[in-house]
Design a protein that fits this description.
One of its GO terms (cellular component) is plasma membrane. The chain is an all-alpha fold. Helices cover 83% and strands 0% of the residues. The longest helix is centred in the C-terminal third of the chain and has 59 residues.
Length: 349
């Protein structure tokens, strides 16, 4: 009964990330026109689309919860909550919300581009797979009966049937494995020690390079943010350790702190981190004052953000031609499967 009530509550207060973005935009708009955060919430409370979320945030603030915890109670996306946790401590609330809006818009724009890119090719691929299954189940056996007196035609059809069975079985088994793995990973990931998770990530070539970019980006972004607020490096490391949502960053904060406690330099500590790119390590290795260090990190954070965007664009541009090529190969295969036995039969006449 208790679990059912929790699920019901979660369902009641959950709303799509697109609406979360609109909510943040409304809050920022009201605050930029002179309203306090409390007054902005009061205005949104009477909007039926946001009543439940606003009520949760107001209740959380009355309990004394910080900004990120309040949005977490209102079932906002974890990336929004994670950003607010980092930024609000060292930015004004209106700047935190504005930067968060920019981050969510950037994320949604690439998700939408990816959906548009793969939607039609994926639909075609599914149609082709269904066509292959139908061809293998109904059409080819009829052809086999028709050409059973001709050895060469029958042999070609048998090879085609075997190949289609292999392809369709492989495709379905792969989907099943991916579904089971995703379900298990999502359910048990919080229970897996972060060290084991990182060792698994190291064995996935493409994801490994992408995770390195993302981790480096978050590290340089948040350290530069804290340094801009004139925090000493030991306090910055302490802030990284306390982060409970970006687990890799929190783990790396602990690793850096352990190395500093052992008498190692900051550069040595960062150099031992696997998912930090070479240039980031180079910035930490250079001896400079805090102002120059913060400037270098801020500039490189912009560069990393652009690099991540370029990689995403390349992936999106790569996916569609690959899927179309696979679809084209399947169409050619179906055509040859049907036509070759006929030509072989004609040659024997």
């Amino acid at each position: 009964m208790i679990q059912w009530m929790k699920r019901r509550k979660a369902y009641k207060y959950f709303f799509p990330i697109e609406k979360q973005l609109q909510y943040l935009k409304h809050v920022h708009f009201l605050m930029s026109h002179g309203y306090s955060f409390k007054d902005a919430l009061d205005h949104l409370y009477y909007n039926t689309d946001y009543e439940a979320q606003t009520k949760e945030i107001i209740t959380a603030f009355k309990r004394g919860d910080p900004l990120d915890k309040a949005f977490e109670h209102a079932m906002f996306h974890h990336s929004i909550v994670a950003y607010l946790q980092f930024s609000h401590a060292h930015e004004s609330m209106i700047d935190s919300i504005k930067n968060c809006v920019d981050m969510v818009e950037y994320r949604l724009s690439y998700i939408e581009k990816l959906k548009k890119t793969i939607r039609y090719p994926l639909f075609l691929l599914i149609i082709i797979v269904l066509l292959l299954i139908s061809l293998n189940r109904y059409v080819l056996p009829m052809f086999l009966d028709l050409f059973q007196s001709h050895a060469s035609s029958s042999k070609t059809l048998l090879l085609s049937i075997s190949f289609i069975e292999f392809i369709t079985t492989f495709f379905l088994v792969l989907l099943l494995i991916l579904f089971i793995f995703s379900f298990i990973w999502k359910k048990y990931k919080p229970q897996i020690p972060i060290e084991i998770q990182l060792n698994i990530y190291k064995k996935i070539p493409f994801y490994r390079s992408f995770l390195t970019l993302y981790t480096s980006y978050y590290l340089v972004t948040y350290i530069s943010m804290y340094l801009k607020a004139s925090l000493p490096m030991r306090e910055v490391v302490k802030q990284l350790k306390s982060h409970d949502r970006l687990t890799i960053l929190a783990y790396y904060g602990e690793e850096i702190d352990m190395q500093l406690e052992a008498g190692q330099s900051l550069a040595t500590a960062v150099n031992q981190l696997y998912f930090i790119d070479r240039h980031t390590k180079g910035i930490f290795s250079r001896s400079m004052d805090q102002s120059s260090f913060e400037k270098d990190l801020s500039v490189y954070a912009v560069f990393l953000g652009e690099k991540i965007r370029n990689k995403l664009v390349k992936i999106i541009q790569f996916i569609q031609p690959v899927i179309f090529s696979i679809v084209a190969l399947f169409i050619i295969f179906v055509y040859l499967t049907l036509m070759i036995p006929m030509y072989q039969l004609i040659e024997t006449i």
